[in-house]
Amino acid sequence: MKKKRTGRILAALALALSLICTLPLPALAAPPRLEEVEYRGNGIVEVEFLKKVSYKDAKVTVTGDDGKICRVSVTAKDKDDLTFKIRDYQEGASYTFTISGVRRKGTKKYGSVSGTVTIPAPSKTVSKKRALALALDHAQKTLGASAFREKEIEKDSLRGVPVWDIEFRGKIGGRWYEFDYEIERAGGKILRWKYERD
Question: Is 29 helix (H, G, I), strand (E, B) or coil?
Fold first, then answer.
């Protein structure tokens, strides 16, 4: 008799435990997580969330490495990202930000999430002439290209980064090809390049 009662109690406890484990626990749900933080220039920072979020009186606070709190304003927000502008930033400095009043969709509790962003120091701007020389030199040394002609260069941007967009024609092994280069205007780094048969 005792064994039967103990067995029923254990079965009831196991059933209760399995029900508790399958119930949603919104209060214990994880806060939103950041997928990417991108500095867009002019003090503008875009924060992308890993999953969809919602807001309630969302605020952003930004603190510099020196502990100074910066003036900041939210410029845009939607279901998976938030953009804010740091008003009194310094180039070459890192900042910690906290977004409060945000929750992951499907949860009930609003909380906060933090991250960091570094505003790059200004670098020397590359002239149009220098950028073209970098592209031609790269094509010659990397691909053995020569006989360059029909060179065109203009200002553009690539994912928010100011670049020189350079196009020209050249020969590789006696055949004509079209070349396209994207060179960062601040620093002269080749960000993207391609070539194809003319």
Answer: coil
Topology of the domain covering 27-118: Immunoglobulin-like (2.60.40)
Q: Spell out the residues 6+ positions from residue 163 whose beta carbon is closer than 8 angstroms to its own.
A: 155, 156, 157, 182, 183, 184, 185, 191
Residue 61 forms beta bridges with which residues?
98
For 95, residues 6+ apart whose C-beta sits below 8 A from its C-beta are 62, 63, 64, 65, 70, 86, 89, 116, 117, 118, 119
Q: CATH second-level architecture of 128-197?
A: Roll (3.10)
Q: Name the region of 168 (left: φ>0; alpha: ψ -120 to 50; beta: rest).
A: beta
Are 178 and 166 spatial neighbours (Cβ–Cβ below 8 Å)? no
Contact 16, 135 (CB under 8 A): no
Torsion of CA 11, 15, 21, 22, to 10 degrees: 150
pTM of the model: 0.52
The DSSP secondary-structure symbol of 132 reads H
pLDDT in tens, 8-42: 665 655 555 555 555 444 444 568 899 999 998 88
